[in-house]
Amino acid sequence: MPRIEELAATGSAPGQAEPDSVESVLRLLRSQGGRITTSRRLLLRCLFEGGAHRTAEELAAEVQSSAPDVHLSTIYRNLDELERLGVVVHAHLGHGPATYHLATETHGHLVCQSCGAMLEAPQDLFGALALAAERDYGFTIDPRHFAVIGHCAACVAPTRH
């Protein structure tokens, strides 16, 4: 597990690739002995061209619009491999399914438990928490992986008078 200082400095774990295009990820996959399949190419296109924070099911639906024979299990296997290579990160944003986004778009998450709004927070917002957890408990956290649950300003405003 990377130390928080390494995550804060680079936005990713040491030794992880930071590919910036479909083709650079395909080169990385080839260098690791991976095959370049139509489903991988389509999934990568979805990740690079679409919005962040999509579930595996949403990504599968997008891939299946071009290749209907690609199964959800194939999408999950590809996402697992891309995460192992440091290309994507998954995050749990409340009670729903995990969402995926490119690792180059590293950030934390704040989720409103009232309205469900999700705010992307800069990675350094969690720096003090991560340092305290490591210092006081010897525990290294990865703040990219979880969401801090609370209430957004719009939901808190009606209760303030």
List keywords for this structure.
Arc Repressor Mutant, subunit A, 6 strands, 3-stranded antiparallel β-sheet
Q: What does it look like?
A:
The structure is a single chain. The protein is an alpha+beta fold and 161 residues long. The chain has a single domain (4-159), classed as Winged helix-like DNA-binding domain superfamily/Winged helix DNA-binding domain (Arc Repressor Mutant, subunit A), CATH 1.10.10.10. It is 41% helix and 14% strand. It has helices at 4-10, 22-31, 38-49, 56-64, 72-84, 127-137, 153-156, and strands at 54-55, 88-91, 99-102, 108-112, 118-121, 147-150. A 3-stranded antiparallel β-sheet has the order 1-3-2. A hairpin with a 7-residue loop joins strand 2 and strand 3 (99-102). Helix 3 (38-49) packs across helix 4 (56-64) and helix 4 (56-64) crosses helix 5. The longest helix is centred in the middle third of the chain and has 13 residues, at 72-84.
Q: What topology does this entry show?
A:
Elements lengths: L3 H7 L11 H10 L6 H12 L4 E2 H9 L7 H13 L3 E4 L7 E4 L5 E5 L5 E4 L5 H11 L9 E4 L2 H4 L5
Parallel strand pairs: 4-6
Antiparallel strand pairs: 1-3, 2-3, 4-5
Model regions low in confidence, pLDDT < 50 over at least 5 residues: 1-17
Beta percentage is 5-15%
User: What sort of overall outline do the alpha carbons produce when their principal axes are compared?
Assistant: globular
CATH topology: Arc Repressor Mutant, subunit A
Name of the level-1 CATH class:
Mainly Alpha
Per DSSP, the total helix count is 7
N-to-C SSE series?
HHHEHHEEEEHEH
Number of strands: 6
Strand order of the largest sheet: 1-3-2
CATH fourth-tier homologous superfamily: Winged helix-like DNA-binding domain superfamily/Winged helix DNA-binding domain
Alpha-carbon distance between the termini? 45 Å
Largest sheet: 3 strands, antiparallel
Helix content: 40-55%
- Tally the structural domains: 1
The assembly state of the depicted protein chains is single chain
Gyration radius, rounded: 17 Å
